[in-house]
Design brief:
Layout lengths: L1 H5 L2 H10 L9 H24 L3 H4 L4 H29 L5 H15 L5 H6 L8 H27 L9 H26 L6 H21 L4 H13 L5 H26 L6 H19 L6 H4 L17 H14 L3 H37 L1
Length: 374
C-alpha cells in the first residue's frame, strides 16, 4: 500500500474528490481559470525530467542500453496502437479515421511510459543485482523521453481540426517552434547567468523561465511537457552548476508536484462506461504482452550479454505521475469529444497498473535475482 502512495495517485484521488466528480469544491469554473496553472505544472515536470538528461551522466551507460530503450518504446507504441485502432474502430465506428488513428497512437505512447518510483522501492529487497536489474532501472528512467517526444509529434501533426490540410508543412513548423524556442532560451539563460549568482537566485530565475516557456506552449496549444523538457536538456548540458542546482530543484519538486496532481485529479472528467472498461482491459493486456514477449527477441539485435527472460517485462508496468501528466497534456492540446474517454481510460489503466505494479515487480525481480545467483 505504501508503494501506491509513492506513485502520487493518492493526490489524484483527492483531486477527484474535490472536483466536479466529488464535492465540487474545485468547480468547472474554477478549474477553467486554473488551466494555465496546470500547464505550468506540466512544464515544471518536463523541465525536471530534462534537467536529469545530462550527457555526462548518460554516457556512463552502454550505448546498447539507449538503443534498447528506443526499440522497446517503439515496439510497445506500435503493438498497442495497432490493438487500439481495432478496438476504437469497433467501439466508436462513427468517428473519422483521423481521430481514431490519433487516439490509438496516444494510447500506444501512454503505455510506453514508465515510472522508476516503484522499481526503486521494491529493488531494495533483492540481494544480487546483475546487468538485467541495472538495465531495467535505466529503461524506466529514460522511457519518458521517447514518450514525451512522441507526444510532441502527435500534438504537432495531429492538431485537429486545424491541420487537416498541409499537415506535413504546418506540423513541421509547429514542431520546429516547439523544439527550437526552448533550446535557444536555455542557451540564452546560460549566457546571462554565467556570472556568479547565488543558487537561490538561479532557482527563482529558472522558475520564471519555465513559467514563460509553459505560457508560450499554452498560448500556441503545444505541449508544455515537451517544450520544458527541451529547455531542461539544453540548460543542464550547458551549465556547470548542475550539481549544485539539482538538490534545490528537488526540494521544490514535491510541494509543486502534490499541488499539480490534486489539480489534475479535479481536472479529470471521469466517466466510467462499458467502452472505457473494454479499453482498459485491452490496453492492460496489450501493455503486458508488448513488454514481455518482444524484449527477449532483441538480445541478438542489440548484442546484450545476458538473456532477457519473459518476466523481465513486468518491471515496466508502472507509469506513475508521468503517465498522468501525459494524459492531461493530450487533453489540453486536443479538446475533442473522445479525449474525455481517453482520460477516463488512461486514469483507470494507471490506477490498475499501480496496484498490480508491486506484485509484478517482485515476481520479475525475484526471477532476475535467482538467475543472477545461478
Amino acid at each position: 500500500m505504501n508503494l501506491v502512495f509513492l506513485s502520487g495517485l493518492i493526490y489524484v484521488a483527492l483531486g477527484l474528490y474535490l472536483g466536479p466528480n466529488g464535492i465540487n469544491v474545485l468547480s468547472p469554473q474554477i478549474l477553467k481559470g486554473l488551466t494555465p496553472l496546470i500547464s505550468l505544472g506540466l512544464g515544471w515536470i518536463g523541465f525536471l525530467f530534462g534537467f536529469q538528461l545530462e550527457y555526462k551522466y548518460l554516457r556512463r551507460f552502454p550505448r546498447k542500453y539507449l538503443r534498447l530503450s528506443f526499440f522497446q518504446s517503439l515496439t510497445v507504441v506500435f503493438l498497442v496502437s495497432l490493438i487500439s485502432i481495432l478496438a476504437l474502430r469497433y467501439l466508436f465506428s462513427a468517428q473519422t479515421n483521423f481521430i481514431i488513428y490519433g487516439l490509438a497512437v496516444a494510447f500506444g505512447l501512454l503505455t510506453s511510459l514508465n515510472s522508476p518510483t516503484l522499481l526503486n522501492a521494491v529493488s531494495l529487497k533483492i540481494s544480487s543485482r546483475g546487468e538485467a536489474f541495472y538495465l531495467a532501472r535505466f529503461l524506466v528512467s529514460i522511457s519518458a523521453f521517447w514518450g514525451i517526444l512522441g507526444l510532441a509529434f502527435l500534438a504537432c501533426f495531429w492538431h485537429y481540426p486545424f491541420l487537416q490540410t498541409r499537415v506535413i508543412f504546418q506540423g513541421s513548423v509547429l514542431f520546429g517552434l516547439a523544439t527550437l524556442l526552448p533550446f535557444l532560451l536555455g542557451f540564452l539563460f546560460h549566457r546571462l547567468t554565467k556570472k556568479k549568482a547565488s543558487d537561490q537566485d538561479l532557482l527563482v530565475y529558472l522558475l520564471g523561465l519555465v513559467f514563460f516557456v509553459s505560457g508560450v506552449a499554452f498560448y500556441f496549444n503545444l505541449p508544455p511537457l515537451y517544450m520544458c523538457l527541451i529547455l531542461g536538456i539544453s540548460y543542464t548540458n550547458l551549465t556547470k552548476t548542475q550539481e549544485r542546482l539539482y538538490p534545490l530543484l528537488l526540494s521544490t519538486e514535491k510541494p509543486l508536484f502534490i499541488l499539480f496532481l490534486i489539480l489534475i485529479g479535479a481536472f479529470f472528467d471521469f466517466r466510467f462506461s462499458p467502452e472505457v472498461g473494454i479499453l482498459v482491459g485491452i490496453l492492460l493486456v496489450g501493455r503486458i504482452a508488448s513488454y514481455s514477449l518482444p524484449l527477449p527477441l532483441l538480445k541478438p539485435l542489440l548484442r546484450l550479454d545476458n538473456s532477457l527472460p519473459i518476466l523481465f517485462g513486468l518491471c515496466f508496468l508502472s507509469s506513475g505521475g508521468v503517465g498522468v501528466a501525459f494524459a492531461v497534456s493530450l487533453k489540453l492540446t486536443h479538446p475533442l469529444p473522445l479525449t474525455d474517454v481517453f482520460l477516463s481510460a488512461a486514469l483507470v489503466l494507471i490506477i490498475v497498473s499501480e496496484v498490480l505494479g508491486p506484485v509484478a515487480l517482485r515476481i520479475s525481480l525475484e526471477k532476475l535475482d535467482s538467475e543472477g545467483a545461478s
